[in-house]
Design goal:
The strands form 3 sheets. A 7-stranded mixed β-sheet has the order 4-10-9-8-7-5-6, with helices on both faces. A 4-stranded mixed β-sheet has the order 1-2-3-13. It has 451 residues and is of the alpha/beta class. It is globular and about 60 Å long. The chain is built from 13 helices and 15 strands. A hairpin with a 5-residue loop joins strand 14 and strand 15.
């Protein structure tokens, strides 16, 4: 395990989950933090590293969440800690737009090299994924002199006003927060499991429908950008049917539309490749990144074709904290770790283990009269199961919540997702030891048996 302060890589429960100290902190949280800031599992973490989270009560939980795909390199990777500590001692902030520093430039150079395509690129740094997406829209509009933005069913792009409009799911992300930004249009995505004429027809039919809607309802000549997650995150880890993304890219290129790959959750080795769009050889015009970029520190980026990125006027991009020097140092440490420890290879191994076990569970519980795994899907260490009621494909959010709760009680952190609330998603740190991965899957299987 690459960590500054190694923790025993074991699950250890010394109290009920959550324990008394966590319960006390949760009570304080309720009195100090607004109700809108929810908590999936109210255990308060004191230390973390490798594949475990240690809470204030001394419990050690197996982490299948990675802070929502943020701690790909672990919670305290040695190179991240060392570089960030050195930068903290030097200076914490100057604002890159006032007096710049090398770290920002170095991160931009790394992203220009790592992202798909060998064309000339530029990178601008920001604070969060939503901010990166907003700036991608700004850049695309500046370049094309158009206004319309096309997004997809089940997509998620953030919680700011513009990105709420881009996001498909109403509750909890949009309910009561409108009106939203205009000139946003939503089209079908190739969701193989739920495509009415069958998965084999999904890619061609979904692409044809999306393109037809764009042409008829918007006009391709009015579209500045098409934005899509190569694997949809909050939507339920939906991997579009093979051929769908290349068809959309071809349409965008033919019509002068900027194609934006939102790789905020899928990037930085999560799927077993540096970026998920590499799987079908997709080269986006712009790519947005965040989450796994800096080992847990807030940083985000837009990287893209130089002629597109340079379209915004001087002073049109930026922000007080964008590309903070400590976050940049952490990002350089995270990228160093990804390379030196072959985290793409580790992600692929996690996928092999998880997919094998989960498909065995799907078969084991195929005849259950309580809950059924409708589909196992995903790539690398971005894996999910969609739960349905026996006898069909009706989503089963109640069983999903019950299984997550049972896992939490046994010291396994899992997350739910999906437009219908019926997806269990698994995002373990890429440095998780294999024995913890196996133990976590044992807990999950017991939870299925107990529902």
């Amino acid at each position: 395990m690459s960590a500054a302060t190694p923790l025993p890589q074991e699950r250890r429960l010394v109290t009920a989950i959550p324990g008394p100290k966590s319960q006390e902190l949760q009570s304080r949280k309720l009195g100090a933090v607004p109700a809108g800031v929810g908590t999936t599992l109210p255990v308060y973490v004191s230390r973390a590293g490798g594949g475990v989270l240690e809470d204030v009560d001394g419990n050690s939980l197996i982490d299948f969440g990675s802070g929502i795909a943020v701690t790909n390199v672990g919670n305290s990777a040695a190179a991240v800690v060392a570089r960030a500590t050195e930068q903290l001692a030097a200076f914490t902030h100057t604002c890159f737009m006032v007096t710049p520093y090398e770290g920002y430039v170095a991160v931009a150079e790394q992203l220009n090299e790592l992202t798909p395509g060998d064309h000339d690129k530029r990178t601008a740094l920001f604070n969060s994924g939503a901010e990166a997406v907003e700036n991608a829209v700004k850049i695309a509009r500046a370049y094309t002199k158009r206004t319309a933005v096309v997004v997809f069913d089940h997509g998620y792009h953030g919680r700011t006003n513009l990105t709420m409009g881009l996001t498909a799911k109403n509750m909890p992300y949009k309910q009561g927060f409108g009106p939203f930004a205009p000139e946003i249009y939503r089209v079908p995505v190739a969701y193989p499991y739920r495509w009415l004429t069958g998965a084999e027809n999904c890619a061609a039919e979904a692409a044809a429908q999306a393109i037809d809607l764009i042409n008829k309802q918007i006009g391709a000549e009015n579209v500045a950008a098409i934005i899509i997650e190569p694997i949809q995150g909050e939507g339920g880890f939906i991997e579009p049917a093979k051929g769908f993304l290349p068809a959309i890219v071809e349409f965008a290129k033919a019509n002068g539309i900027v194609f934006v790959a939102d790789e905020i959750q899928t990037g930085f080795c999560r799927t077993g490749q540096w970026f998920a769009c590499e799987d079908e050889g997709v080269v986006p015009d712009l790519i947005t990144t965040a989450k796994g970029i800096a080992g847990g520190l807030p940083l985000a980026a837009v990287t893209g074709r130089a002629e597109i990125m340079d379209a915004a006027h001087s002073g049109g991009l930026g922000g007080t904290y964008g590309g903070n020097p400590v976050a940049c140092a952490a990002a350089l440490g995270a990228i160093e770790t990804m390379r030196s420890e072959d985290l793409n290879g580790k992600a692929r191994r996690i996928g092999e283990v998880m997919l094998g076990r989960l498909r065995a569970m799907q078969e084991k519980f195929a005849d259950s009269d309580r809950v059924r795994i409708g589909e196992v899907r995903g790539r690398g260490a971005m894996i999910a199961v969609e739960l349905v009621k026996p006898g069909g494909k009706e989503p089963d959010p109640a069983a999903t919540a019950a299984i997550a709760k049972a896992c939490h009680a046994e010291g396994l952190v899992v997350l739910t997702a999906g437009t219908y609330g019926n997806v269990l998603r698994f995002l373990p740190p890429l440095v998780i030891p294999e024995h913890l991965l196996a133990e976590g899957l044992d807990i999950l299987e017991s939870a299925f048996a107990g529902v």
